């Protein structure tokens, strides 16, 4: 079934957006949202293997099957390779939302060079596209990990972020600096989105909530670092997408400098053990847990100050964590029904 688009919106909105990382978790949901608002979206992704490629392909298949061709075009390309980005030259983009990156702290420990190439070289190549199109607004994914070893909570955009605990965090901080200088020189608005542990349906198999769920069902041991004392500001995907859509064309930003960073979080700290208990509850199955010590690259807690975010969405209401996990488990059971015989 094709999305039923609001006719008035479609006629009003002929704007074109480039969304990078469109086969990824956040990119997939964002493509759905922006096309439903009548934007014409070109989505790019290299469908890499940093986690199971099948879900990336399934996301693209879903988008191609459910969105009319005139609203969505998917192109496979690698942002690290400048020559592959030539396919984008024929489009005239009004906005660029750059989400493609090699995410995850653990991956940056295993494959630092790949992370460096995509997160730094790739980011730089996308800036060239932004400049070529002189877009109205360039938005890009930063991360709560830039707060690194900071101890003052909650984390605020005005805090100094000079102590990244791993290469991934350092690349995101570097993106913010590059974007700042880029906006300053080129007079193009840019906004870094510091996402805090985004979760939900069609999520990332390399994130704890997803692989814990899988391991509980497979009766496999789950390793819980720092004796389960880590806390995360888990943010449900729908709110993240709603925030991006609101910020993209917000008048609020016009009162500010050309480059800004915004925390995209929920302002609630959740202990990792709570996540496990909710998974056990909805899966009706006990987890087999081994507690281990803290990893040096891991942050102890993440907790977002979202006063700035609220300026873009005054009625912002976040999904309760238990309800969010319920929705994730429902989706998981449907998506993996053949793997587990639910
Ligand atoms: N999900 C979270 O909790 C979270 C938290 C903080 C920051 N972020 C950031 O948000 C963005 C989106 O995250 P996500 O959770 O959707 O991750 P994701 O891995 O699901 O999506 C990223 C997509 O980018 C693509 N990609 C990577 N390198 C590429 C390259 N060189 N060329 C083309 N495509 C490439 C991947 O194939 C993937 O589909 C990332 O930049 C990530 O670092 C996410």
What's the gist of this structure?
With 342 residues, the protein is an alpha/beta fold. 40% of the residues lie in helices and 16% in strands.
For the sheet with most strands, the description reads:
7 strands, parallel
Counting helices, strands and paired strands, the structural category is alpha/beta
Just name the CATH architecture. Answer: 3-Layer(aba) Sandwich
User: Beta-sheet strand percentage?
Assistant: 15-25%
Which stretches are poorly predicted, pLDDT < 50 over at least 5 residues?
Answer: none
Gyration radius (Cα, Å) is: 19 Å
What is the count of distinct domains? Answer: 1
Per DSSP E runs of 2 or more residues, the count of β-strands stands at 13
CATH class: Alpha Beta
What string, H for helix and E for strand, traces the elements in order? HEHEHEEHHEHEEHEEEHEEHEHHH
Q: Portion of residues in helices?
A: 40-55%
> Strands of the largest sheet, in order across it?
3-2-1-4-5-6-11
Q: Bound compounds, please?
A: nicotinamide-adenine-dinucleotide
* CATH superfamily grouping: NAD(P)-binding Rossmann-like Domain
N-C termini distance = 25 Å
**Mean pLDDT across all residues, rounded?**
94
Question: Strands, helices and their partners?
Answer:
Layout: H1 7-12, E1 16-20, H2 25-36, E2 40-45, H3 53-66, E3 72-76, E4 95-98, H4 105-110, H5 112-133, E5 137-143, H6 167-186, E6 190-195, E7 198-199, H7 208-217, E8 221-224, E9 231-232, E10 235-236, H8 237-248, E11 259-264, E12 270-271, H9 272-283, E13 288-291, H10 307-310, H11 321-335, H12 337-340
Helix pairs in contact: 2-3, 2-8, 5-6, 7-9, 9-11
The structure holds nicotinamide-adenine-dinucleotide (NAD).
